[in-house]
């Protein structure tokens, strides 16, 4: 796929020449990518290749240094209203990062109430709806410490959903989960795509990637080397680097 | 109103005819301010359980001088060591506190004598009399700290060393009653004091102690009023005391307080109770003086700790942040205030600060404010470490999650970081508070009437130290146990951190 040099305002996310430095270390190297509405992108790559850094640039938790990032036709830079951006781009973490001192329900209502100014009862109604979507409604009054890993990750997804995002970023959401929980998360991510929510997911699980991805983005040393559909990526990777990466993954 | 009162005084005391330009410079704004350490009966002490009710020969003299100059007397009480620093800091105009007129002190202050006195060395009854101070060679002797007896004993020791004999071993205690106590419990061989004190204490000491020597020290013969150096003031004070003396008023005061020249009659009574007196103990326990003292201890500790917490939270955040000039200054602040003894900080703020900033010697800067200020600063240097550790213990992923949800930094601190840091900080904070509650007792040196100061004043008056110490102990323990109980109650609210408890609670 050949991208034009200027960003595409009709894409959900359009990225051109995106670079990021940590001091003099080049963590992201001139990334170009267009992601459309409802698409499920999986980012693969060896450890330290810049996957986390990349998706953190998408909600500007890490600001990029050069290049253009456009979401729904709006350029994201240092003048962007971060509260609005974080509202439309949600994030789910490997270690869930739930607020341990709040009940499941309060985890889901805290940000909508504080950031969006939604009333407690409205926020709770929304939260219960999303909690049942991720099959965890009956745990609403518990504290995170009382839930299993899979349950906690589903709460984290519900918490992100409560902000009504158009995009959700996942950073290794299944890394701490057992296979059964993983398949639960796969189902939820499919549902999200059906609702038109775009997902960008970093993972080390090849099976999960193959199941879920519309397209695989393969990164190495801060650069995107391949953007291909999963069947093609797993059977006939185009770059040598991707071939060795896959060979290593299969051996493990 | 004031004018009328002054007029009435002028009519009642026709002999005292002080004109405005006859006033010494330490009398101003219609006030004569006095510094005194009320633990030396019958010169200056608290008579009764109300710690504000000062009494004694010195207090009568101060009141008479105030009347003589037609002004109000404003007494301030403090530890003996605090008297002269306070005089220098212009916190008071004069010191009358059973202080002897001595050459050493005259270098820095002016003194006017008002009463003759004799030094005595006192030991437990049955101790043989001695001929001279040198006979105490190798023995332990107690004196009140800040008094000049210590220097006098050092001079004796120089002579003893010169002749190859062991020196007198000196112990110093902050109050006179503790000095006497050391002899009663047999820890020291003798104590050095003035005869007048013994006259007053005959009830408590009767049959227990005896004078073993009346050393003839030329420098220890007169009690004096001390003022800052000023020849005109000194002349005016001398004139006032001479007038009162001529009229026999000073002799009358001495008589009123039982200061008469018969040593031996002091030690004939034998009715001192020696067992634990429960009536005194319960009397002290439920006295308003102790209640007030305990309340003051609690209030000053709470206020100081709350202030310390409030200032140490932003300090901890800054110290956990990036390196900067402010961060380094804060690091220095913490090192200085943790390094210096709390007692030194209190004394510094009370006695040294007014030398740099005169506003700190004005009346609004009370011992309460000074204690609050210095304990807050001191405590914040400890609390900041607790806060830092607690803030660091909160998973950075929490901040990331809040950030990703669009929460502002303030919202993140308020709703995410602080509630979690609080759980970690609470137990060491309560520990700090309990230790602070006990540290407040140091404030007695700058005359704050907290629990221990009240206790010492009562002990000085009655000599029933066991009973009063026990009552103070009960108060301290009650306060500490209450806060330990409170800690347990608050910890129950942190069920979210403990899987087992959280589940038990949900079941
Ligand atoms: N805050 C930071 N400061 C400096 N260097 C960083 C920072 N965050 C990441 N890096 C560096 O940037 C590079 C990319 O890191 P990143 O976390 O994006 O990798 P990753 O692909 O997500 O790796 P993994 O699969 O191990 O999670 C790494 O070399 C890392 O050391
Ligand atoms: Mg990563």
UniProtKB/TrEMBL annotation, chain A:
The keyword Nucleotide-binding applies. SUPFAM superfamilies: P-loop containing nucleoside triphosphate hydrolases. Keywords: ATP-binding, Nucleotide-binding, Transport. It comes from the Bacteria. The keyword Lipid metabolism does not apply. Residues 13-246 form the ABC transporter domain. GO terms for molecular function: ABC-type amino acid transporter activity; ATP binding; ATP hydrolysis activity. Belongs to the ABC transporter superfamily. This is Amino acid ABC transporter ATP-binding protein. It comes from Gluconacetobacter aggeris. The lineage of its organism: Bacteria, Pseudomonadati, Pseudomonadota, Alphaproteobacteria, Acetobacterales.
From TrEMBL, chain B:
GO terms for biological process: amino acid transport. Residues 1-20 form the signal peptide. It is a multi-pass membrane protein. GO terms for molecular function: transmembrane transporter activity. Keywords: Amino-acid transport, Cell membrane, Membrane, Signal, Transmembrane, Transmembrane helix, Transport. One of its GO terms (cellular component) is ATP-binding cassette (ABC) transporter complex. It is found in: Cell inner membrane; Cell membrane. It comes from the Bacteria. Residues 294-486 form the ABC transmembrane type-1 domain. The chain crosses the membrane at residues 294-317, 329-350, 468-486. Its main location: membrane. PANTHER family: L-CYSTINE TRANSPORT SYSTEM PERMEASE PROTEIN TCYL, MEMBRANE COMPONENT OF AMINO ACID ABC TRANSPORTER. Belongs to the binding-protein-dependent transport system permease family. HisMQ subfamily. This is ABC transporter substrate-binding protein/permease.
